[in-house]
Amino acid sequence: MSSIYLDHAATTPMVDAATVAMLQHMGELGNPSSLHSHGRATRKALEDAREILAQEVGCLASEIIFTASGTEANNIALKGFYWAGRAQGKNVVVVSAIEHHAILDPAHWLHAHESAEVIELPVTIDGVIDLDFLKDLVSTRGSEIAVISVMHSNNETGVIQPIAEVVAVAGQIPVHTDAVQSFKKTPLSFSALGVTAMSLSAHKIGGPLGIGALILRRTVEIPSLVHGGGQEREIRSGTLNAPSIIAFAAAAQSSHYQAEEITQLRDHFIDGVLSAIPDAVVNGLHAKRLPGIVNITFPRTQSDTLLLLMDSAGVSCSTGSACSAGVHEASHVLLAMGHTEITAQSSLRFSFGATSTHKECDFVLSVLPDVIARGRAANSV
Ligand SMILES: Cc1ncc(COP(=O)(O)O)c(C=O)c1O
């Protein structure tokens, strides 16, 4: 068996419904902002897609702001809320220590260039944010906080965060959640959660790359990052990418993600790993997690080496963390959960999706002992 894809948290294969919808609309002519019949036809298809997505997300259609990625949605939210808050004398940005770089980096940018004070929420050993820390922070410095941003679930460990509790603690402070990994994988409703804003990305749910959305409460206004034609409530100018938006909605509507089956597959995988490699550690094992993501530390190995050995065995997985100039950095998520630099750099992320099978899972389990043995041998020289 070759070419097993266990990196669905990085990106997912496009579902047929999305590919068909996208190809069909790529052949249609018309700028959705044009008033003639071509433009109106594109606008109609686009607004229908917005309605479908709104139903899937549990928000109003008018609350969806389309963007080019989850990264862009996060940037618009964090910077926009900060600037809106700063105009009222609030300069504190609160983010969890385990956010994706698409939140952490704009937060650090706001600190370096816009005088923001950034406070990172610590997490427990299982990777769940420390709510008591947040409660203390809000009770002592709440009037200074412009925005609180906590991801709905973590992309490296799959650990689901207590967002409803964050909203309750935050009171009047705007709460943004990066739900890029959660959408269509675990129950998610914008209105039920009560957050002020939420980020999504199409390519994590079987939609195309390069399209995302910021869901922003109708009554909330934030300054824009991208100025121009005034599309999307003047928050995100730019001609709307109609084919991708239509495909995004088609993917959301036709999602075949079977949470129970994927959870079983994941648990079968974890059992297999722990019986073959008894000193392996599953990160976030005791927390509530997404069905499809498993992050495992294999002591006395180097993630880079394991990744290459897995790849040559025909398995695509991930270290879960960023590479900088070809060098794999220790994961900030695992470090925040109490790992050392060494153990954080001995970890792999396997992420299952709608196309994953038991046969694939068993194949990976069959090659794993040899990969780990070779990884350990390489690490000891
Ligand atoms: C939690 C999380 N947020 C944001 C992003 C960025 O999304 P995009 O690839 O659409 O920019 C990712 C992608 O891996 C992610 O996992």
What does this structure look like?
The protein is globular. It has helices at residues 16-26, 37-57, 70-86, 101-114, 131-141, 163-170, 190-193, 242-253, 259-276, 303-312, 332-336, 341-344, 358-380; strands at residues 4-5, 64-67, 92-96, 117-121, 145-149, 175-178, 197-201, 212-216, 281-282, 293-297, 315-316, 323-324, 327-328, 347-351. The protein is of the alpha/beta class and 381 residues long. Helix 3 runs parallel beside helix 4 (101-114), helix 9 packs parallel to helix 13 (358-380) and helix 10 packs across helix 13 (358-380). Helices cover 41% and strands 14% of the residues. The protein has 13 helices and 14 strands. The mean pLDDT is 96. The chain has two domains: 4-12 and 256-380, Aspartate Aminotransferase, domain 1 (Alpha-Beta Complex), CATH 3.90.1150.10; 16-253, Aspartate Aminotransferase, domain 2. The structure holds pyridoxal-5'-phosphate. Pyridoxal-5'-phosphate binds next to helix 3. The site of pyridoxal-5'-phosphate has 12 residues, from helix 3.
Task: Describe the structure concisely.
41% of the residues lie in helices and 14% in strands.
